[in-house]
């Protein structure tokens, strides 16, 4: 009698370089793929709208690829610890494998499930797959987590080279009768009333095959201009791999080794390092999305948000060209150029004096690449309250940023053409006055740090 293996897919919606899948295949038993939509477990953050759109299409792709190779993807909804254990029992599974997650609620679920499965006599094992360096393997000389990027990344690079990626299996044996599965459509991940995803469909094709094509395209065609033009939003010089990493359609090990083999390193690989730093920080500080990493920032006197200012920022109606262009690009495509992300975030925090957590929540809902670490980590970096943060008094002037990084207004013309017309929209605040107000408010933080 067979005892199938369950591979619990999470943020690793791929077949190549999937250690949990490889472990299941090594058992030489049928394999059942499983994805659990968990909006119920304590501490689990429900996905934003753009992320739900991506998940629907990436799961569709994964299910098709598993089916082509002989296996199946079972979809279940509910508290993951309960759902996985129930499927293991009902399917007569002998083992459950998964790749690790690093947020505290996810780690708690995984630890409890591993104990429960082993108590029931099953093999339960987790693997390193989503980061290059496990967070507990990188520490300062005194054993504390790093708070500054450069020494953190230097310490990472002093460790053994990240392992080679595992090959994609050509066949995956399935069970003779697949367990019952939810209909993906019943999860209602796609927007309906209204359907706001036309721009996402135009720009993106979720799934592992498209991810691999984009990596190849970037390494062979676009990477030569990356370092020189990556800060120019109209240049098309960025890799556009961030949602692929967020959903695990590509592993960081695959990107690392294929980049090195293609002769692409330097700044591009350091961006992988910045992602590692975000996960390292979240692992050690689980409340990154809600609490200031620098606790002296708890003294910052955030005023009650002006609802009209917040709405203008969300809708790209601030009157500042590069801010409006970025926010409209975000709404239409689920993506925003990284330089513009910094400018729009700085404007919300330091010109509108709106708490960074409110901006973080908006990006969480509208970005296809928002993950549990990088989104909050980067918002705290801009706010000045996080790891290796830009000082609060470093305020990105949106007009100067536009002149420096979009001097011909190509990006602005694409996303906010009303700003290059004869009558551009009015600006909702005065940059000079709001800068002074922000610096004055910052004095409360300076006072707290001295106490």
TrEMBL record:
Family per record: Belongs to the DNA photolyase family.
Cofactor(s) the protein requires to work: FAD
InterPro entries membership: Crypto/Photolyase_FAD-like_sf, Crypto/Photolyase_N_sf, Cryptochr/Photolyase_FAD-bd, Cryptochrome/DNA_photolyase_1, DNA_photolyase_1_CS_C, DNA_photolyase_N, Rossmann-like_a/b/a_fold
Organism, as annotated: Microbacterium lemovicicum
Span of domain Photolyase/cryptochrome alpha/beta: 3-132
Name listed for the protein in its UniProt record: Deoxyribodipyrimidine photo-lyase
Residues bound to FAD: 226, 238-242, 268, 369-371
Listed GO biological process terms: nucleobase-containing compound metabolic process; response to light stimulus; response to stress
Cofactor note: Binds 1 FAD per subunit.
Top-level taxon: Bacteria
GO molecular function: deoxyribodipyrimidine photo-lyase activity; DNA binding; FAD binding
Keywords from the named record: Chromophore, FAD, Flavoprotein, Lyase
EC number in record: 4.1.99.3
Site-annotated residues for Electron transfer via tryptophanyl radical: 302, 356, 379
């Amino acid at each position: 009698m067979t005892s199938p293996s369950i591979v619990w897919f999470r943020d690793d919606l791929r077949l190549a370089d999937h250690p949990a899948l490889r472990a299941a295949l090594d058992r030489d038993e049928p394999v059942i793929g499983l994805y659990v939509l968990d909006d119920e477990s304590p501490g689990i953050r429900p996905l934003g709208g753009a992320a739900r759109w991506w998940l629907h299409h990436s799961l569709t792709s994964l299910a098709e690829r598993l089916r082509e190779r002989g296996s199946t993807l079972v979809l279940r909804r509910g508290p993951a610890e309960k759902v996985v254990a129930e499927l293991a029992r009902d399917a007569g599974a002998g083992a459950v494998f998964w790749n690790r997650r690093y947020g505290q609620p996810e780690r708690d679920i995984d630890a409890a499930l591993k104990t429960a499965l082993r108590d029931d006599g099953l093999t339960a094992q987790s693997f390193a797959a989503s980061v290059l360096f496990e967070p507990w393997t990188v520490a300062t000389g005194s054993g504390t987590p790093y708070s500054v990027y450069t020494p953190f990344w230097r310490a990472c690079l002093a460790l053994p080279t990240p392992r080679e990626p595992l090959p994609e299996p050509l066949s995956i044996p399935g069970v003779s009768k697949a367990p019952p599965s939810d209909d993906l459509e019943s999860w209602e991940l796609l927007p309906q009333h209204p359907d706001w995803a036309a721009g996402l469909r135009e720009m993106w094709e979720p799934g592992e095959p498209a991810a691999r094509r984009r990596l190849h395209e970037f390494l062979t065609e676009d990477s030569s201009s990356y370092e020189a033009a990556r800060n120019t939003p109209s240049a098309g010089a960025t890799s556009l791999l961030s949602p692929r990493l967020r959903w695990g359609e590509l592993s960081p090990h695959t990107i690392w080794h294929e980049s090195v083999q293609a002769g692409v390193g330097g700044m591009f690989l350091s961006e992988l390092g910045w992602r590692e730093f975000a996960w390292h920080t979240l692992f050690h500080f689980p409340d990154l999305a809600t609490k200031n990493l620098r606790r002296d920032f708890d003294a910052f006197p955030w005023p009650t948000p002006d609802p009209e200012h917040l709405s203008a920022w969300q809708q790209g109606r601030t009157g500042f060209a590069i801010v409006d262009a970025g926010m409209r690009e975000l709404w239409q495509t689920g993506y925003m150029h990284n330089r513009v992300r910094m400018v729009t975030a700085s404007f919300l925090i330091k010109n509108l004096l709106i708490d960074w957590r409110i901006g973080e929540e908006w990006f969480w809902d509208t970005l296809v690449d928002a993950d549990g670490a990088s989104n909050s980590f980067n918002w705290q970096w801009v706010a000045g309250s996080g790891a290796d943060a830009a000082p609060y008094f470093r305020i990105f002037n949106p007009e100067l940023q536009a002149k420096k990084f979009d001097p011909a207004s190509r990006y602005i013309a694409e996303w906010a053409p009303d700003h290059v017309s004869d009558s551009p929209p009015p600006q909702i605040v005065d940059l000079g006055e709001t800068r002074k107000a922000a610096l004055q408010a910052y004095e409360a933080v300076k006072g707290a740090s001295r106490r």
